[in-house]
Amino acid sequence: MVVGNKWQIASAMLGILFINGCGQMMAQRNGTGSNVAMQRPAMRMRAVSAEPGPELRIPAASNQNTGTPAPAEVALVPLPPIPKYNQNASNLVRTNNAVANSTNNIPENSTVNTANQGAVGASTVTKANNLVSPFGVLGVSENNNTIPKAAEISTDPSRNLYHKTMARLATLDSYVVRLVRKEVINNKKKPQETLLLKYRKAPLSIYFKWLDSEGVGREVVYVEGMYENKIHTLLAAGDVPFMPAGKRMAFAPDSILVRSASRHNIKDAGFVPLVEGLGRAIIGQSKGDMRFGTVKYTAANQRPEFGFPVESLEHFIPAGVENELPKGGRRVVCFDPQSSLPMLIITFDENNQEVEYYKYDRFQFPTRLDENDFNPDYLWSKPKLASGSKL
Q: Is the pTM for the entire model greater than 0.85?
């Protein structure tokens, strides 16, 4: 009996040791043993199944030799790259080398000459405010330098001037400028107007204030996608029959009252639509595609408005390209030699009659325009009077 009991005890001890050994082996396999806790990543378990889920990350571990803190987790599966998009605008603009935009008919960049191809390939700057040209992304240095890099310089001076202007526009989130305007609308010459223009790129925000006797007291503000997406205005005397000066009204951008007061939609204010139109013609002309017209460069152009010579581009516009010139015409654009921005724009119709005259001066940039600069409720709210005060 004693011998039998000893054998039973020995058998029980061997069973316990065997079970314990199996448990340690399973712990090591699952990475839960105390001596291998940091050797393998723990297997994540699915909520509704006993099967292990996929492991996507390697846990961070400190450097045992130096004792330095643990680095961040290392991904086993590479994360997708962040798309290179201009996030400031509501309409995302690609900033890769294959610049193809069906909405503005800018041709692809694949057939640009080799000098510009080198510039595109080397241009990896993806600033949030960069504009896209038919020649690729224009990386702009922090000091707002608008001189093209050596690889970007072309034998075509119109391209070089276009490059400099686009590079400057890429640096301008907002600006303030004075505008002298003369237009012909429905074959009727409008009187000359002098306006203050405030411009913000994103969201597209436009503010006009009439400064001279013509239209004095009139103000217009528009912010794309805000304030009912309408043009809000303070009327000048005679703007709307039976409406007093200072009356506030709102109109849709395509309202007949708005279209009868200007040749262009308010969304075309600023320089970007103009320069994009020049770009389409320049790149098309370089490929033998004249659908968007031709562009002629003139250096040292003397104008009576300025006391110094200026560079200019003359755009010959075919019929059907612009709604404002249904039978075609031409446009002369003179550029400020310091800022590379357009400072004079004169447009002629098919009969060589002047129909648009825009002169810009007193540029202010960079500026810090905020929501209140384009908020009609803020701009035109009546001041609150203290108790007992009178206007």
A: no
Q: Does residue 117 carry a pLDDT above 80? A: no
Backbone angles phi, psi at 6, to 5 degrees: -65, -45
For residue 137, name the pLDDT band (cuts at 50, 70, 90).
Answer: very low
Write a three-state SS string for the chain.
CHHHHHHHHHHHHHHHHHHHHHHHHHHHHHCCCCCCCCCCCCCCECCCCCCECCCCEECCCCCCCCCCCCCCCEECCCCCCCCCECCCCCCCCECCCCCCECCCCECCCCCCCHHHHHHHHHCCCCCCCCCEECCEECCCCCCCCCCCCHHHCCCCHHHHHHHHHHHHHHHCCEEEEEEEEEEEECCEECCCEEEEEEEECCCCEEEEEECCCCCCCCEEEEECCCHHHCEEEECCCCCCCCCCCCCEEEECCCCHHHHCCCCCCHHHCCCHHHHHHHHHHHHHHHCCCCCCCEEEEEEEECCCCCCCCEEEEEEEECCCCECCECCCEEEEEEECCCCCCEEEEEEECCCCCEEEEEEEEEEECCCCCCHHHHCHHHHCCCCCCCCCCCC
pLDDT for residue 95: 30
φ, ψ dihedrals at 334, nearest 5°? -105, 140
- What mean pLDDT value characterizes the chain? 72
User: What is the per-residue pLDDT across 42-84, written as a single tens digit (0 to 9) for each?
Assistant: 433 333 333 333 333 334 444 444 454 444 433 333 333 333 3
